[in-house]
Specification:
disordered N terminus, single chain, mainly alpha, 312 residues
């Protein structure tokens, strides 16, 4: 279908992060180690929340799904980058590039909605504690998750609808290590300035709007707690600091890209590394190292595993 609609271009070539071979060796080791930590850290969060009954609450349900999405985002790009650094074959098929763009936007859109759901959860837990369990029922959590994936899917389809009519017949080099939509559009056969502006405005509006909505909601929560009891402000701030940090880590690179729609290539690559290698590590670290319940659950899980090994 894509070959019929688009063009003669059958594959794209990634220019990668560096052409300097010693730097490539360093990047190979760096990305491999970080990806292993990403997989282990996020799977640990998912398994701990799944198998520890003490964590079967809305907040940890949403946290486990956030870790799952972060793991998927990294898996879409980092293993391919590692393979390219090792083999030197920096190519991807046309269909593979389109699928990667589609999946990245589905996951990115879903994570945005999931972060909003987590902000709603904290608002209800802190400001409406008596109604919290009634509103954030298991059914509501499922609906929030389903809604996040549906909105992510709609967002991705809408983005790709902008480029459905493009033809690719010339250059096929992408100066990155993955297929991102702006770089993909620039390789089209005709001028795409208006299209680039529309996509940038669309994604920029969604990202910036969501970010400020989340920050305003956290400020509203803190003001509400402060009015009720100034002593509870520090506890609320401690609880929300992890959420605020994750929001800044996720939306920061997006906002920089859309505030400056034509960033320099080094900045673009740095932001991509931040998105796919750094943030997915920091998310589980922030939520586990600062959370007593998660620490206790991990100890219980490790003790159960050790006891099973001794019995076997």
């Amino acid at each position: 279908m894509y070959e019929a609609n688009y063009s003669e271009v059958s594959e794209f070539v990634f220019l990668g992060l560096s052409t300097y071979r010693p730097m490539q060796h360093f990047l190979l080791i760096f990305s491999t180690l970080f990806y292993v930590v990403i997989v282990l850290g996020n799977l640990l969060v998912v398994f701990t929340v799944t198998f520890d009954s003490h964590l079967h609450s809305p907040m940890y349900f949403l946290l486990a799904n956030l870790s799952f999405i972060d793991l998927c985002l990294s898996t879409l790009t980092v293993p391919k980058m590692i393979s390219d650094l090792y083999s030197g074959l920096n190519t991807i098929s046309f269909q593979g590039c389109v699928i990667q763009i589609f999946a990245l936007h589905v996951l990115g859109g879903s994570e945005m909605v999931l972060l909003i759901a987590m902000a709603l959860d904290r608002y209800l837990a802190i400001c409406k504690p008596l109604r919290y369990l009634t509103i954030m029922s298991p059914q509501m959590c499922i609906w929030l998750l389903v809604g996040a994936w549906i909105i992510g899917l709609i967002h991705s389809v809408a983005q790709l609808a902008f480029v459905a009519h493009l033809h690719f017949c010339g250059p096929n080099e992408i100066d990155s290590f993955y297929c991102d939509l702006p770089s993909f559009i620039k390789l089209a056969c005709f001028h795409t300035n208006r299209l680039e502006f529309m996509i940038t405005a669309n994604s920029g509006f969604i990202s910036t709007g969501t970010f400020f909505l989340l920050i305003i909601s956290y400020i509203f929560i803190l003001i509400t707690v402060w009015k009720r009891s100034s002593s509870g402000l520090s506890k609320a701030l401690s609880t929300l600091s992890a959420h605020i940090t994750v929001v800044i880590l996720f939306f920061g690179p997006c906002i920089i890209v859309y505030m400056f729609p034509f960033p320099t290539v080094p900045l673009d690559k740095f932001l991509a590394i931040l998105d796919f290698l750094i943030t997915p590590i920091l998310n589980p670290a922030i939520y586990t190292l600062r959370n007593k319940d998660m620490k206790m659950a991990m100890r219980r899980l490790s003790n159960e595993v050790l006891s099973l090994r001794r019995i076997s």
